[in-house]
Amino acid sequence: GRAMAAWARTVRGLLLDVNGVLYDSGGDGGVPIAGSVEAVRRIKASGLKLQFCTNETQATREKFVKKLQGMGFDMSVAEVTAPAPAACRILKERGLRPHLLVHDDLIPEFADIDKANPNCVVIGDAAENFTYANLNEAFRVLIGMEKPVLLSLGTGRYYKETDGLKLDVGAYMKALEYACDVQAEVVGKPSKKFFESALAEMGVPPQQAIMIGDDIVNDVGGAQRCGMRALQVRTGKYRSVHTSH
After folding, report:
1. CA–CA gap between residue 25 and residue 60 (Å, rounded)
2. Inter-residue contact 93 to 71 (CB < 8 Å)
3. Which range has highest mean pLDDT (21-25, 140-144, 197-201)?
4. Whole-prediction pTM value?
5. Domains (range + CATH), the chain
6. Is the pLDDT of residue 162 over 90?
7. What angle separates helix 132-143 from helix 169-180, to the nearest 10 degrees?
8. DSSP labels for 186-209?
9. DSSP code per residue over the chain
10. Quick check: 151 and 120 in contact, CB under 8 A?
């Protein structure tokens, strides 16, 4: 009714999750979710500002955007807020030299970061790179430090690909936290800083923005803590909870 219309009028910017909202990823490149290409076109035509917020850490933003443009989405690299560039800013600000436990395709994002003699670990969604040997190497870097620093490019437990659910970075982050008795610093959703930088990109205050995602913790919870409203869509990893009577 009228209240909803008034609420919609105050909105100037949309933050849109990508994986599970616009498309389901997969080894085959993934598939767009029905109606999503058209929805992005309509949002842009309406004059609303749009920032794509992704915890995607299996590819550089350039590669990620190319893939989505190939599916028909109207988007540019500047419209994407992702964890790796945010992590690079932190590493530079704090003089941190990372040991990277990330996907091979993400390495170019860290090209101009000093990685010699590491004094921290950066963990991302490394997928096939999450071998025992690689986890153990990251563990050794951390356990050898007086004050271990672990940066995680997200806290996701799992995500959906076209061939089923996949373990995400959060599960491996917890393993290292547990082994090293350290608390990871999260870069990416649901960290407040991540949402604040997406809002800054759009030049829109939190009260005038809405986050749309498929993840109740990372998308909805993260946005709300930042003073934004959020909507959960029933696609992607959304699973209805069946209660037993």
Report:
1. 15
2. no
3. 140-144
4. 0.84
5. 11-55+189-232 (3.40.50.1000), 95-186 (3.40.50.1000)
6. no
7. 40
8. E-STT-HHHHHHHHHHHT--GGGE
9. -HHHHHHHHT--EEEEE-BTTTEEB-TT--EEPTTHHHHHHHHHHTT-EEEEE----SS-HHHHHHHHHHTT----GGGEE-HHHHHHHHHHHTT--EEEES-GGGGGGGTTS--SS-SEEEE---GGG--HHHHHHHHHHHHTSSS--EEES----EEEETTEEEE-HHHHHHHHHHHHT--PEE-STT-HHHHHHHHHHHT--GGGEEEEES-IIIIIIHHHHTT-EEEE-SSTT--PPPPP-
10. yes
Tokens 């969604």 found at:
125
Single-letter code of the amino acid located at 113? I
Place of tokens 């959020």: 230
